[in-house]
Amino acid sequence: MSDESKRREESAGLMEYSVENLVPFGPIHPALKEPEYFKLILEGEKIVQVIPRIGYVHRGLEKAAEQRPWMQNMYMFERTCGICSFVHSLCYGQAVEELTVFQVPRRAKFIRLIVAELERIHSHLLWVGLMGHWAGFETLFMWVWNDRELVLDIVEAISGNRVHKSMNTLCGVRRDMPEGMEDRIVERMKYIVDRAHYYREIIDTEETMLARTEKVGNKISQETAQKLCAVGPMARFVGLRQDVRLNDPYAAYDEVPFDLVTRTEGDVRSLLRLRLDELIVSANMISYAVKHLPDGPFRVRIPNIIPAGEHSSHCEAPRGEIFYYVKSNGGKIPDRVKSRQPTMANIPAALELLKGQNLADLPMVLTAIDPCFGCMDRMSFFDTESHRQWAWSGEQLRQYGIKHYFPDRISAAPALKIGEAH
Amino acid sequence: MPRRKAGAIIPEMFRVMLEKPTTEAYPYKPIKLPERFRGKLDVDPETCTGCGVCAIVCPAQVITMVDVGTRKVGDKELPVKRPIFDLSTCIFCGECVDNCAFKALELTKEFQLACSDKADLMMRKALAK
Question: Which residue range is the domain that position A145 belongs to?
């Protein structure tokens, strides 16, 4: 074995496997909407192990947030994801609002709930369509995306845009609900519920869907899911009662009644059922919220300067729990913003789900977690010479930055060891 | 759970066939836009005072203020500024429209912005006065 191929295998951690069993999957692959690389180790047709390599679409959002005013960051974080855009701005906004003395008006909280739930419906419908597409049931894809248009029409009528709503502002929403929309929304939601029941019937009885989804996916236990920090539907489909809307209500979720949907089968079909059930719950929540929309102001104007302090916030995005942390030094721009997206938390559970599955089921199982790789990419350290990975604290990273940009200034600071374990 | 029979799709097929088409003949027929649609930005050169608030609040740094001359206030010469809009990077959030105290800006219903030269999307309308 030449030195080069030996080094390559060492870097992959594959010494115990022969090279013939290694199948590269990605970064550009028809089954992935965004670039991500998975090393698949196979035994025959079965997947033994999956090694992910993330970071192809790292955009430096957190660093960019440190150079923009508070309000402009809201629009930037809204563009973290192209599907669940509203909930990102909501979560960032909630963290900043906690630092101020102003209260969000009750009407704004209800409008936030309505838009967030509309977003959940359109995200889940999009996903159900994609699952039909990968299962080879193209008709389902066409039906579901047709119904998704009805939801997007409502979103467009409320906010003025289909995906990037630009609805949120600090301490309120920018637009009130349009007049005379109530009946139209309730009627549409009723239709969506009917359709969701029909799709549930299809996935329970249709031969194509059953063949591709039933007992597909390595069943993971509740303990494993908890240990691997699975969030959102990936935690609920094994029976964990984990939902931020219920556990730590934000917006108006404490005033609108809803049922938490969980399943216990732990295969891809249970994820389909779970998301369709969640969609029905969301549609009922919207109907309730539209009927019980309180009167009053929908926005409070606040100053550009946010008082010093730090706060975090978490919300239930369609894909799971998202988390934002903000730190202010009392100025016009944030000191630090940290965001954690659900796909990042769900990747370890997804790798567990793939073990022992056929290679042909890989697109189904990987799509089943509803991945959004563009959202989750973060920076990590990897030395290509010694094949070592490590983590740095914020202070170590700052010192490295100073040393890199101003080598003459660092003389007073302690010497830094590259790759020092933290 | 019983398996679905082969002909179970027929009622759904008739339902879809009998309802009107979902797609629209868009380039040949004008598309119906909602009332709140946020399209291309437009500025009224008569009302714009060049205060520069829009350039400060813009999240995408679309707006740059340029000097177009000077004016006399008392015995001081102050620069007169007007905005230039680079619509190729506009994200259509409408923050500038919300913050314009003189109502000189608006988001129109125009959305067909494709062009072969990026320079065509530079809006210098406010300069001509």
Answer: 61-376
